[in-house]
Design brief:
mainly alpha
Length: 141
């Protein structure tokens, strides 16, 4: 029987991946509608869009949040496995855009996704260390 903690981990992980998939596959019209009608979505995205950067900060922040969350959910999982999972998610999310109306995959977006994943994994390092120290080994597997 699955433990509640493991079930919660998988649910949170699935929600993170679902968030990325929805954000990637949402047609441009639907994204415009969401931003227009929901200020809580528009406000942070507008701030990120208007920040001067050579990176697409929406991609960077989204993947930083996802990688941070997943990294903290499995603190004993080696970092390279997490990085590989983020690489697969970044690549897959860009490839899925071939079938999303009004969206187009870009290599630069995949780079921004990977930059965000690296930022998230780096920011999670102290939390992972703390979680590994405080959780018994059998609880985090």
């Amino acid at each position: 029987m699955a433990r509640p903690l493991n079930v919660l981990r998988w649910v949170l992980c699935d929600l993170c991946v679902l968030l990325v998939v929805i954000a990637v596959l949402l047609p441009s019209r639907a994204m415009s509608w969401l931003r227009r009608d929901y200020p809580l979505i528009n406000w942070p995205m507008s701030r990120l869009d208007h920040a001067s950067s050579r990176f697409d900060l929406v991609h960077v922040v989204l993947f930083a949040a996802v990688s941070f969350t997943v990294s903290c959910l499995w603190p004993r999982l080696p970092w390279w496995k997490l990085a590989l999972a983020m690489l697969a998610l970044a690549t897959g999310s860009e490839l899925l855009q071939f079938w999303a109306p009004g969206r187009e995959p870009r290599v630069s977006d995949a780079y921004d996704d990977l930059l965000g994943a690296a930022v998230g994994l780096t920011l999670a390092l102290p939390f992972r260390w703390l979680l590994r120290r405080t959780q018994p080994p059998d609880q985090s597997e």
